[in-house]
Amino acid sequence: IPMVILLVLIQLYAIRQLTHRMKVLKGNIDALSTGDADLTRRITIRAEDELGAIGHSVNRFIAYLQSMIGEVTQATGAMASSLGDLHRTSAHTSEILMRHASETDQTVTAITQTSSTAESVAQNAAETAAFTQRANEHADRSRVVVGEASNSVVALIDEVASATRKVESMQQDAQRITEILGVIGAIAGQTNLLALN
């Protein structure tokens, strides 16, 4: 009978530890699903079992999502820089065109200066076209990265839902084990009473 009691105590301890680990894992997954996640955090893996495998999977996905968001941020920054260059070039071109308009009524010397200005305008127009092309390329890359991030979020939601279902199933199993251990404990108690009689 002492062995039965010891076994029951060990089982209760194991179930309590399992339930605690499931609650911690579920809390981390819930934080991700509600949008309050810190992508620098990782789930602590305490054992290489089914819960550990789920934790590894979630950690890998968090790292992938963190990298994806970093790429989006980098692409957005590059696009903003290109747009700033384009704005400055456009302002410079506009200034040259205004100066060119004011010089068209001057002498032959002014006409020569206008020719030089026209060449500068052409060069700036070519630079503007190049900046525009680069901005479009950055925008295309950003759209691709954002699309991938959107798909990743959908996949994460699916994985979180699946993990939640697994955790709930394991909680039900733990509850059944607890009930069985309760029955075993009751039987052990009755056996003790019979032995005393």
Automatic annotation (TrEMBL):
Belongs to the methyl-accepting chemotaxis (MCP) protein family. The keyword Glycoprotein does not apply. GO terms for cellular component: plasma membrane. The keyword Coiled coil applies. Residues 153-180 form a coiled coil. Transmembrane segments: none annotated. Gene3D superfamilies: Methyl-accepting chemotaxis protein. It comes from the Bacteria. Pfam families: HAMP. It is found in: Cell membrane. This is Methyl-accepting chemotaxis protein. Its main location: membrane.
